[in-house]
Write a structure and sequence with these properties.
Layout lengths: L5 H18 L10 H10 L14 H15 L5 H14 L9 H7 L10 H4 L1 H4 L12 H6 L3 H13 L5 H18 L6 H15 L3 H9 L6 H13 L6 H8 L9 H10 L13 H11 L4 H16 L6 H5 L4 H14 L8
Helix pairs in contact: 1-16, 1-17, 1-19, 3-4, 3-19, 4-5, 9-10, 10-11, 10-17, 11-13, 13-15, 15-16, 15-17, 16-17
One magnesium ion (MG) binds next to helix 17.
């Protein structure tokens, strides 16, 4: 489909659920051999799989809250979104949430809390979380706002409900921007795509809070820009090993060690790659490659799945894979609702 087509919207949300569900199998694994990944993915084609459907985790649970809040409030409403996260957690606490964020979700359960950003600010002795929990649920912001300034603004605020460290919420900004650009067809020119992300993040990371957090955590001055430059260097190489990707970009639970990695997965898998099945198309390659990196596989595949889905569109998701994933149908319907809302918002200016 063309820029911001319904197929791209559906691809973004279904791709995110798919990544979360298929990636859950390997979350936390240090080494994931490709044959195990392929066995897992090929098993999804099996008509009479004994294992039933793959359950979604916190990544999708929180993304669903973001979508529902944006739709019912017709925009960003921090009180509503915060309460929705808290309610979802209290109804279904066993979805594999991060151990820190649970404290925030319990505090947010109080209806009409005066300052819904306060519990997040109290995390980790006032330093705030730098986990990827804000980024993993950021895709819907790109589907709800057309203007890239709004995408950045609301992805940041949505993440700050649980992640007050700039290395957490700026990961959400980067992820939402990547989905936004992909929706517009920007992945047709991969180098332009990565340069645009670097340019945007230079502005984002110039803020004083970001500079201060980077200093405090002994990161480079512009941590996300630095990682995106590494993505660019890796893109220019003919051969890149899994070990090099992990050592350059990371595969961990911190937003800094997973959002640029997810972006690299998508970029790397735009082309046929040695070691990935020849019959796999871009979407399937992105999924397989995200899993073989190990570490935070559900979240890296979820974020990569959203960016890739916005590029390839929903038709690139194998039907059998979608059928195996809890919440894929709901994501598809939600994407249609968000798409209906999208043209009514002011155009990019
Ligand atoms: N939590 C997991 N996976 C492991 C546990 C699953 C469990 N085995 C199960 O089966 O139930 N996955 C999910 O968590 C990630 C998103 O986490 P989020 O929302 O960012 O949580 P949190 O707690 O804020 O941060 C995660 C951890 O990062 C470290 N951390 C963050 N900020 C820190 C700081 N300022 N100082 C020190 N450490 C900090 C802590 O270890 C946090 O617990 C996704 O992967 C999702 O899938
Ligand atoms: Mg998870
Ligand atoms: Mg995870």
């Amino acid at each position: 489909g063309g820029p911001a087509s319904i197929a791209r919207f559906r691809g973004a949300l279904v791709g995110a659920v798919l990544g979360d569900c298929v990636g859950g199998e390997f979350e936390g694994a240090e080494e994931v051999p490709m044959d195990r990944v392929l066995q897992h993915l090929n098993g999804l084609q099996d008509e009479d799989r004994g294992e039933g459907i793959l359950q979604y985790s916190d990544d999708t649970a929180m993304t669903r809250c973001v979508v529902q809040s944006l739709l019912t409030r017709a925009g960003f409403d921090e009180q509503d979104m915060a309460y929705s996260f808290a309610k979802e957690y209290s109804l279904s606490p066993g979805r594999g949430y991060g151990s820190g964020v649970i404290q925030v979700l319990k505090k947010l359960r109080v209806p009409k809390l005066n300052d819904v950003f306060q519990p997040a600010r109290a995390q980790f002795n006032g330093r705030g979380s730098f986990g990827n929990g804000g980024a993993m649920r950021a895709a819907p912001f790109a589907l709800a706002f057309r203007d890239h300034g709004d995408v950045k603004r609301y992805a940041r605020l949505g993440a700050m409900l649980t992640h007050s460290c700039s290395l957490g919420y700026n990961g959400a900004v980067l992820q939402a921007l990547a989905v936004h650009l992909s929706l517009q067809g920007a992945l047709d020119r991969p180098h332009k795509f990565i340069n645009r992300l670097i340019m945007e993040m230079e502005e984002v990371e110039s803020e004083e809070a970001a500079r201060q957090d980077a200093r405090l955590l002994k990161e480079s001055e512009f941590p996300f820009c630095d990682r995106l430059h590494r993505v660019k260097d890796l893109m220019e190489r003919n051969q890149v090993s899994i070990e090099e990707v992990i050592s350059e970009l990371g595969n961990g639970i911190a937003a800094l060690h997973s959002v640029p990695t997810a972006i690299f997965c998508v970029l790397h898998c735009l082309e046929v790659r040695e070691g990935l099945p020849e019959n796999y198309r871009g979407m399937e390659r992105t999924m397989a490659y995200s899993l073989v990196l190990g570490g935070d596989t559900d979240t890296i595949a979820c974020m990569g799945g959203a960016i890739a889905g916005a590029h390839y569109g929903v038709d690139a998701v194998p039907n059998a894979w979608g059928r195996c994933c809890e919440g894929a149908d709901d994501a598809d319907r939600s994407a249609e609702h968000l798409h209906k809302l999208y043209p009514r918002l002011p155009p990019e200016g």
